[in-house]
């Protein structure tokens, strides 16, 4: 994602390391920034304005002792990029007293139908809504079938009705949604060009019949400036409330992400980062800016982990690790959780310094598969007690998995090292016993509302606690204080939360 841009910016910053910001360096740097953005296929007015702002800000900045031009420029560019692509805006305007209507529009093949299903899943799982999808694309014979299949995959109802026009289908869908008690209706429309008057007329009719609360323009980020131009053209005939950029995972350049907000005035609401239905992310301009500058997006990574990883299981695993009772079966289930988060390359690209250079790394994407097949080929007893695996067992396991003996031996060696580490952890339980959940970790990383000491195992010593944050010294004295609820309390809370969700779903 945006590797080209990241590489360019990291080079520009590296070139400035150790130097001072002067008229001359900024003239040269400005030119390089302009070239980088043009290569990314950003719109010309955006590029010119961006260069000017960065240059003025850099020349006007107060020079801080010990901060070199590269560091200063990074900060300025990051702020400007965030500004350019922002604001953060992924809230829906919910309709009270009736289903909220979301209209998806765009060119053919831009990703509307896929995004429709992704949004349905997002709204159900993360916003606790009850969505319904509507097949309003009657241009392609296979379109209804495609949405029906996606509906089944996600487990969300799909409305379609033969013999009606798309505006009539959408209108009828609202009635059906009320009957089914669905509170969000997602209209998946046919792809169209803004110059096609008939189809644009149809889209307006859909809008006038359903008065959508959100009208999203879904566009393919890989088409760069063309995506921006079509968004602009659409917004002239129908009132858009936001843009969804799809296929950002395959977009090395980033021109659409950089210019679409500035040119259309419409916020980027969500981004599509893969074909799978869980690859939709809320758009965070600051995180994107950080990725573009090669500083990674660790917050985004934790965010994704939060969505796909079962926190109860993690707590159980953590306890097993602390007790050094973690076996190969647990190892396998951990690997599977990581796999759910995405490919190894994708995960690595979120880390600082790796963004633009992941392709240069020798990352074998199939390592997890090797380990998975080897463990699967073991008996239950072997997984629980790997120490019984002798040479003949190794041979059998390798043959069963279709792998080499070295694959099996290597895995066992790594696991043994891990066990050694767990024994160490067991000894230092006091330190790890206070590890906190993913939400706190994310908040701390984001510098948000979370407990800023959450990343420090055991918290900061009393003397170092900022005033107001120091926990009350309860019974047991400061030595026994714990920050945040205990594992038991957290587990109880989560159970209550699940029950509450279940109840509200039934309602
Ligand atoms: N890599 C990637 N592919 C996507 C993404 N969104 C959609 N696609 C693919 O783009 C193609 C067209 O998608 P579709 O939803 O049928 O487009 P529509 O014609 O606008 O409804 C399909 O092959 C999708 O799998 C995305 O975020 N990333
Ligand atoms: Mg479609």
Strand proportion = 5-15%
Question: How does the overall form come out from the CA principal axes?
Answer: globular
Query: Which structural category do the helix and sheet elements fall into?
Result: alpha/beta
End-to-end Cα distance: 41 Å
Number of domains: 3
Task: Label the CATH architecture of the largest domain.
Answer: 3-Layer(aba) Sandwich
Question: How many helical elements?
Answer: 22
Description:
The protein is of the alpha/beta class and about 500 residues long. It folds into three domains: about 5-85, Four Helix Bundle (Hemerythrin (Met), subunit A); about 100-300, P-loop containing nucleotide triphosphate hydrolases (Rossmann fold); about 305-425, Signal recognition particle, SRP54 subunit, M-domain (434 Repressor (Amino-terminal Domain)). It is about 55% helix and about 10% strand. The chain is built from 22 helices and eight strands. It has helices at about 5-15, 25-40, 45-60, 70-85, 110-125, 145-155, 165-180, 195-210, 225-235, 255-265, 285-290, 300-310, 310-320, 330-340, 345-350, 365-375, 380-385, 390-400, 405-425, 430, 440-445, 485-505; strands at about 100-105, 130-135, 160, 185-190, 215-220, 240-245, 270, 280. An eight-stranded mixed sheet has the order 3-2-4-1-5-6-7-8, sandwiched between helices. The model is unreliable at about 430-435 and about 450-485 (pLDDT under 50). The structure holds guanosine-5'-diphosphate and magnesium ion. The site of magnesium ion has 5 residues, from helix 5.
């Amino acid at each position: 994602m945006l590797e080209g841009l990241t590489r360019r910016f990291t080079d520009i910053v590296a070139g400035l390391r150790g130097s001072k910001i002067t008229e001359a360096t900024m003239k040269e740097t400005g030119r390089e920034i302009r070239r980088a953005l043009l290569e990314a296929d950003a719109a010309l007015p955006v590029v010119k304005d961006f260069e000017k702002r960065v240059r003025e800000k850099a020349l006007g900045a107060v020079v801080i002792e010990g901060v070199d031009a590269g560091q200063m420029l990074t900060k300025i560019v990051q702020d400007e990029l965030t500004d350019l692509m922002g604001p953060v805006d992924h809230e829906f305007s919910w309709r009270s007293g009736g289903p909220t209507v979301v209209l998806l529009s765009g060119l053919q093949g831009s990703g509307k139908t896929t995004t429709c299903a992704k949004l349905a899943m997002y709204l159900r799982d993360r916003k606790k809504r009850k969505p319904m999808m509507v097949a309003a694309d009657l241009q392609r014979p296979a379109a209804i079938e495609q949405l029906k299949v996606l509906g089944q995959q996600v487990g969300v109802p799909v409305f379609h009705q033969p013999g009606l026009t798309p505006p009539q289908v959408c209108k009828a869908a609202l009635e059906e949604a009320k009957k089914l008690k669905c509170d969000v209706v997602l209209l998946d429309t046919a792809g169209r060009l803004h110059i096609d008057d008939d189809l644009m007329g149809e889209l307006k009719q859909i809008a006038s019949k359903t008065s959508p609360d959100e009208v999203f323009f879904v566009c393919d980020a890989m088409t760069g400036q063309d995506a921006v131009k079509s968004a602009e053209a659409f917004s002239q005939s129908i009132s858009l409330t936001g843009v969804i950029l799809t296929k950002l995972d395959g977009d090395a350049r980033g021109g659409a992400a950089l210019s679409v907000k500035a040119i259309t005035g419409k916020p980027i609401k969500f981004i599509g980062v893969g074909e799978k239905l869980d690859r939709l992310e809320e758009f965070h301009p600051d995180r994107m800016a950080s990725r573009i500058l090669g500083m990674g997006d660790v917050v985004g990574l934790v965010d994704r982990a939060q969505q796909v990883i079962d926190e109860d299981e993690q707590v159980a695993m953590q306890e097993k690790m602390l007790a050094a009772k973690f076996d190969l079966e647990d190892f396998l289930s951990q690997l599977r959780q990581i796999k759910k988060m995405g490919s190894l390359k994708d995960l690595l690209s979120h880390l600082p310094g790796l963004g633009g250079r992941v392709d240069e790394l020798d990352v074998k994407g199939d390592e997890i598969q090797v380990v998975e097949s080897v463990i699967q080929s073991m008996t239950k007893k072997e997984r629980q007690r790997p120490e019984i695996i002798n040479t003949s067992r190794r041979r059998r396991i390798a043959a069963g998995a279709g792998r080499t003996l070295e694959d099996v031996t290597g895995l066992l060696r790594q696991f043994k090292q891990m066990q050694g580490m767990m024994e160490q952890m067991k000894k230092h339980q006091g330190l790890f016993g206070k590890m906190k959940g993913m939400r706190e970790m994310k908040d701390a990383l984001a510098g948000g509302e979370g407990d800023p000491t959450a990343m420090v195992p055991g918290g900061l010593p009393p003397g170092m606690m900022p005033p107001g944050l120091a926990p009350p010294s309860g019974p047991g004295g400061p030595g026994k204080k714990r920050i945040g609820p205990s594992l038991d309390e957290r587990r109880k809370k989560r159970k209550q939360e699940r029950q509450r969700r279940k109840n509200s779903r039934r309602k």
